[in-house]
Design a protein that fits this description.
The chain has four helices and five strands. It is α+β, with helices and mostly antiparallel strands and 133 residues long. The longest helix is centred in the middle third of the chain and has 16 residues. The radius of gyration is 16 Å and the shape is elongated.
């Protein structure tokens, strides 16, 4: 069973466990949009990017298996910037008439936007910001 470290927290996980699954067992949030435990891994949304020490590039947490001694960071500035970029891409291309928000009143994209920075998007039109009551 590999021993890993996520954000300074040491864990021991089953062989074959992905980083996102290991983080969930430790209650460490990783933004994700296309990953679901009951489905095959697509790795297309690029929101679950994490920094793995000794690896020059960020990795997708949904399709990267934990290995012995792996040190993972989910909250570094590099990761946060990448999540903001991916989130901006998804929000720009997201339909305004999405049935999820209308029917359930909840949206992971909105939740991640609130969690990852309330940044100013790179769009031509100014964003309308209102205080939620």
């Amino acid at each position: 069973m590999p021993k890993i470290t996520i954000n300074g927290k040491e864990l021991e996980v089953q062989a074959g466990t992905s980083i996102i699954q290991a983080a969930q067992t430790a209650n460490i949030p990783i933004a994700h949009y296309c990953w679901h435990e009951g489905l095959s891994v697509a790795g297309a949304c690029r929101m679950c990017m994490v920094e793995v020490e000794k690896n020059p590039k960020l990795q997708i947490a949904c399709n990267t298996q934990c290995a012995e001694g792996m040190v993972i960071h989910t909250d570094s500035p590099k990761v946060k910037e990448t999540v903001r970029w991916a989130l901006d891409f998804h929000l720009i291309n997201h339909p305004l008439d999405c049935p999820i928000c209308d029917q359930a009143g909840e949206c992971k994209l909105q939740d991640y936007y609130m969690s990852y920075g309330l940044y100013t998007p790179e769009m031509n039109q100014p964003k309308m910001k209102k205080i939620k009551l």
